[in-house]
Hints:
With 329 residues, the protein is an alpha/beta fold. The protein has two domains: 4-145 and 268-299, Response regulator (Rossmann fold, 3-Layer(aba) Sandwich); 149-266 and 302-328, Rossmann fold. The chain is built from 14 helices and 14 strands. The chain has helices spanning 22-26, 51-58, 80-91, 100-110, 147-150, 154-161, 179-192, 205-217, 229-233, 235-244, 254-258, 269-284, 306-311, 318-323, and strands spanning 4-5, 30-36, 67-73, 95-99, 116-121, 140-144, 167-172, 196-201, 223-225, 249-251, 263-267, 295-296, 299-305, 326-328. Strands 1, 7, 8, 9, 10, 11, 13 and 14 form an eight-stranded mixed sheet that branches. The chain has a six-stranded parallel sheet with strand order 3-2-4-5-6-12, with helices on both faces. Helix 3 (80-91) crosses helix 4. The longest helix is centred in the C-terminal third of the chain and has 16 residues, at 269-284. The protein is elongated and about 60 Å long.
Amino acid sequence: MNRRKIIIAFGAGALSQALPLPAQQQGKIRRIGFLAIGSRPPSLDSHPLGGFPRGMRELGYAEGKDYVIEWRYAEGKLENFASAAAEFARLKVDVIVAATGVGIEAARKATSTIPIVMVAMADPVRAGFVASLARPGGNITGLSNQSMDIVTKHPELLRTAIPGLSGVAVLVNPDGQTGPIFLKQIQASASAIGMKVRPVEARTFAEIEAAFTVLTRAHAGAMIVTPHALFSAEAHRIAELALKSRMPTMFWTREHVEAGGLMGYGQDNAEHYYRAAYYVDKIFKGAKPGELPVELATKIELVINLKTAKAIGLTIPQDLLFRADKVIE
């Protein structure tokens, strides 16, 4: 589990082949529309989103000379994705990079012709974004974070962190395309180790607050937060609620743990955004998105916030700390 890697699917090496850059040859400045969750970070260099421009630089593209990025941030309001995607369609950008299922769906509804590179997506086939991982078809391709499989490890990791843990609450957005599936995956893995699951639904932050109130009164042992754009946008406030209620939490990425969550097990988002640049490069060179295989996450990491553990009175076993890729102190 420590520093585990997952092999890139379907010959992703072909994506990194060094080829001439048509944009440089023709003097054309390409326009990339980027749909991102949350707010604009103070610095891209220290944020996972910075992986994308870094990937473009390493491929030989100069921002402002060969391409420009039209950043659009949802600012925590998922409905903003739709208006931003529609704007990209009107601007006729050369490619759209869309994060999360909500962003990808907004881009798909806005255009069927502009290439779309997806990131931070759990199961693009089941969501209907692509026909298959090997041959996506249509105008969408990109990366899958494999969180459908990864969340099955969350109950076991919480049990290791909290020996004797008998039950766990699972926060899920029932309106999400994959939320109910995440819940079933977690229920199956929890049942296998004799752990009870209490599903908790939330479509808004107010419902998230209400859920914590109920769970605190019920003395819930821990909470697994399933992947969803809403929960990403509210990561800091969820972490604050968990700290206030002394609720151990398990998330699916490092960023949520850095925001104050207890643990995270899942993809390295910075690498995901970095790899998205290779898809944009291929599309700039004439590749059709429907013929570019979807790539799977290449790095899965375990992150533990020891500061949060101490704040809620939890002692993390040393063997789990040794297995962690990163410990925040």
